[in-house]
Specification:
Layout: E1 6-14, H1 29-33, H2 39-57, E2 68-80, E3 88-100, E4 105-117, H3 118-132, H4 146-156, H5 159-164, E5 170-173, E6 181-188, E7 192-197, H6 202-208, E8 213-218, E9 226-230, H7 234-237, H8 240-257, H9 259-262, E10 271-272, H10 290-309, H11 313-321
Parallel strand pairs: 4-5
Antiparallel strand pairs: 1-2, 2-3, 3-4, 5-9, 6-7, 6-10, 7-8, 8-9
Helix pairs in contact: 2-8, 3-10, 4-11
């Protein structure tokens, strides 16, 4: 990868006083929660749900269910392609930190969790749409996801990443509503029951180009499995508390974003096909504008095209074919 590429990391605390930064990727789900007259109540309720779920899963030596609190940081990453180019907002991820109220220790959690990317918005909301416009059969453009994958891998292998984070990222996403997931006999004490999809999804293929593999697990008392994207050995590279920090955080957000799947009143069985039209679900008391998020993803994909993809076309084409 081009040695002239540099990354700049900014961190912002996600708590009840959080206000999205002006240059944030505003389709980021937690930024959606932090706007409007109910912003502070939204954040308080979401953080309370996260802490309650964490303590439910981390129940050993925790008789009152109040031993732990999670602190969340929004990590924003800007990229510069060379010394003359302006910084462009690349990705946003979420970092967990665990506060042990019994020992008064602060334990580093997992970085990744939620994942947002301008270039990903461009790929799915602009490039993919243009490629399939007026076509009878859906297809994928050549080299789809190659640039995004190279940029992400360059970031994770950079000195900037290594200076800030001890372990590779783990990203936790919802399952695809056009795949069927089958229960396996494998069960992890924290992540729960493992599922396997009937076929690979476009998201799986896209994240594979980012250097990430995927496994699907449904933790105890969850309604559906989660897609966990990672590098290395998910079940042995991370501690129980680290894994719990990801599950408690992302399950809470998915209950808000995808209640039809993750706040369903009946949990996944041996064969599970997610259904976004499932009426048998409960709503959280947290206000979330899903339509706004979809519209903004398209707008920011166009922003990436105008301010990053087109101006640096020749440089980016070289990166696409380079070895990380």
């Amino acid at each position: 990868m081009n040695k002239n590429i540099t990354f700049n990391i900014k961190s912002q605390r996600l708590d009840e006083n959080y206000h999205p930064a002006e240059n944030t990727r505003i389709t980021t789900n937690f930024a959606n929660l932090a706007r409007g007259e109910h912003r502070q109540q939204n954040l308080k309720k979401a953080l309370n749900m996260i802490n309650n779920r964490f303590n439910t899963l981390a129940n050993w030596d925790n008789p009152t269910g109040e031993r732990y609190n999670l602190e969340l940081e929004i990590i924003s990453v800007d990229i510069s392609l060379d010394e003359n180019s302006q910084r462009f907002p690349s990705i946003e991820i979420l970092k967990t930190n665990i506060v042990d109220n019994k020992t008064n220790k602060r334990i580093e959690g997992i970085v990744g969790n939620n994942f947002s990317s301008y270039v990903r918005d461009y790929d799915f909301s602009v490039l993919l749409q243009q490629h399939n416009k007026n076509k009878a059969q859906f297809s994928i453009p050549d080299n789809f996801g190659e640039l995004h994958g190279k940029l992400f891998q360059s970031f994770v292998s950079s000195n900037t990443y290594k200076q800030h984070f001890k372990k590779p990222p783990v990203i936790c996403l919802s399952v695809s509503d056009n795949k069927t997931y089958h229960r396996t006999a494998n069960e992890h004490p924290i992540l729960g029951i493992e599922y396997q999809p009937n076929e690979s999804s476009l998201t799986e293929q896209y994240f594979k180009k980012m250097g990430l593999q995927v496994r699907y697990f449904m933790p105890a008392n969850s309604a559906a499995p989660f897609a966990l994207f990672f590098v290395g050995d998910l079940l042995n590279d991370y501690t129980n508390l680290e894994l719990i920090s990801t599950i408690s955080t992302m399950e809470t957000f998915q209950k808000i974003y995808r209640p039809e799947i993750y706040n369903a009143n009946a949990k996944a069985g041996n064969a599970f096909k997610p259904n976004l039209k499932n009426a048998d679900h409960s709503l959280t008391q947290i206000i979330y504008d899903r339509d706004e998020r979809s519209k903004l993803a398209a707008e920011q994909g166009k922003f990436a095209e105008e301010h990053f993809i087109k101006p640096y076309k020749s440089v980016l084409e070289q990166l696409t074919t380079a070895n990380v």
